[in-house]
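go over both lines:
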Amino acid sequence: AMEKSYVSMFLLLIVISGALAKDAGKKDTKDTTTKPKLPQTLSRGWGDQLIWTQTYEEALFRAKHSQKPLMIIHHLEDCPHSQALKKVFAEHKDIQKLAEKFILLNLVYETTDKNLAPDGQYVPRVLFIDPSLTVRADITGRYSNRLYAYEPSDIALLYSNMQKALKLLKTEL
């Protein structure tokens, strides 16, 4: 009687492992098709070849430890102003090159950190944070009512603000 229960257990194991293998096989094919899209999801179109951090916490950690400034872009997928800024940002060769010197994060949701919304939760807004984890209130756009807002026509200003963020860092370190 003992042997019989072993046999049925053994058969059950074969069936289970077969089912698991089938699931794993399904997963593999899915993963290979989605893998190349990974940077795309993190960049959300702001620069697919750039390295983007996944979370605000990770971005702060990296800024602190790499001694690079952090650039945070708040935007929304269904906001025409965000879309317009994203397009010129992604197509601006000099900005894309300079962006490699930053820790980068783009967010489609607000964090609980009030420092990231010093004058409101509007989009798009771009903030620079130095490696001491201080929001640079001295690096702003041209609108007094929305200090960190940029229009597509302000792309040159955003570029010079990125240069400023890097320059400030050199003089302060």
